[in-house]
Each structure stands twice: as C-alpha cells, then as structure tokens.
Automatic annotation (TrEMBL):
This is Clc-like protein. The keyword Transmembrane applies. It comes from the Eukaryota. The chain crosses the membrane at residues 12-33, 109-131, 138-164, 184-211. InterPro entries: Clc_prot-like. GO terms for cellular component: membrane. Keywords: Membrane, Transmembrane, Transmembrane helix.
Length: 236
C-alpha cells in the first residue's frame, strides 16, 4: 500500500506540473502575440504607438473628440518582417533619430528566445504525458522544462534591460521627445515565466522521487532460500 500511495503522489505532482506548464505556455504565447510590449503616446501626431516583438501598431487618439472611447478604436498594425513596409518606413525616417522605435533591432533577438521557450514548452508537454510511466521521461521532462524556464527568463531579461536604455526608452518626434513605457504584454509573459519556474520545481521533485524509487527497487535484498534438508532429517 505504501508503494502504491507514493506512486499516486508522484502522478499528482506531475499532473500539477503539466497544468502549470500549460498555463505558462498560454500566457507566454499571449504575450508574444500582443503588440503592447512598449507603449508611447505621441501627442503631436495624436496617436498611441504599440511596439511589439513582431508587430508595430498605432491607435489614433480620436477619444479627444466628443463621444469617442479610446479602447473602442481599432489598432492599425504593420508586420515587422514585411520588407516592403520596412523599406517605406526607412525612407520616411531618414531625418529622425535612428535609435527610435521604428529602428529597434533587439526585439527580434528577444523574440528568438521567447519562440524557443514556447517550442521547448510544447516538447515538455509531450514528454510530461509519458513521465508517470517512465523515470527516463520524467528526467527528460524536467530537463526540457528547465530549458523552457531558462530561455524565457533570458528573453524577459534582454527585453527589460534593453527597454530601459535611453535610446530605446525615448522616442524622438518632429518637435518633441516622448517616453515609452513597458506594456502589459511584458508582464503577461513574465507571469508565464514565473509559472514555468514553479512547474520546473514540481517536475524536478517528481523526477527525483521516481529515480529514488528505481534505485530502491534495484537494491532490494533477495529473500534467503529455505534449506532443502532440515538438520533433524540429516543422516548421522
């Protein structure tokens, strides 16, 4: 009964880790898809710019007019990897500071880390499904979750420190300079990273427990065989 109870506890820990990883994967994917990583209100253009990792969006500030709600206005987005659009943008910003939001290249580097984290999280889920059946899959699951948390943390750290650089934090307009703030997409992704770290702790505990059980099963003492002949029946 004790061995069966231990196995049930390990399964519960692995399932809990999988649930946490699914939640983390959803938050990280939602953060990457959102364009609101950096937000700036450029008052001279009467527009709010949302600078994402792969999208640049603009919302006109028509809420200044009567009976207009800012949140009801749609975002007009441009795909960052659209080279024809990028060429037009480059032609239009020749006289603007090259370190402005339109010229940010480090977003792509951050995006690479975060996409790797999402792929690793998906692979971790596949291994985690088989983890209760095999200690090898449990160890592989813990390793993949560790790489998932590491790459996601690297992506968050790169974005956070780069976003606080002077050349990335401030946007030069035609007549003024405007400060960008970190948007909700960053905090959404950070929440997913924290949850993935919790999933890593639970995955490591379950993998260690399974390995310990395997070691104890491997070193079980063999039962001593009863003697074939009792001493009292031996011939004198």
């Amino acid at each position: 009964m004790s061995e069966r109870r231990t196995t049930s506890a390990q399964t519960i820990v692995i399932i809990s880790s999988l649930i946490l990883l699914i939640v983390a994967l959803g938050l990280q994917a939602g953060g990457v898809m959102s364009p609101s990583w950096q937000v700036v209100d450029i008052r001279e253009f009467r527009a709010t710019h949302h600078h994402g990792l792969w999208l640049d969006c603009t919302r006109p500030q028509l809420h200044l007019l009567k009976n207009q709600n800012r949140d009801d206005l749609p975002l007009h987005c441009t795909y960052k990897f659209d080279f024809s659009a990028s060429q037009i943008i480059d032609e239009n910003i020749e006289d603007i500071d090259q370190n402005s939001a339109a010229g940010e290249r480090w977003h792509k580097f951050t995006l690479g880390f975060m996409l790797c984290a999402i792929i690793l999280a998906a692979l971790s889920l596949l291994c985690g499904i088989c983890a209760p059946c095999s200690s090898g899959f449990a160890v592989l699951y813990a390793i993949l979750v560790a790489f998932t948390a590491f790459t996601a943390t690297c992506g968050d750290a790169i974005f956070f420190f780069a976003a606080h650089r002077v050349d990335s934090r401030f946007v030069q307009g035609l007549v003024g300079t405007y400060e960008q703030v970190i948007g909700m997409a960053f905090y959404l992704h950070v929440a997913g990273t924290v949850i993935s770290c919790l999933a890593l702790i639970m995955a490591a505990i379950s993998a260690y427990s399974l390995l310990q059980n395997n070691e104890s099963d491997r070193h079980l003492p063999m039962r001593e065989m009863a003697p074939l002949h009792e001493p009292r029946f031996a011939r004198v």
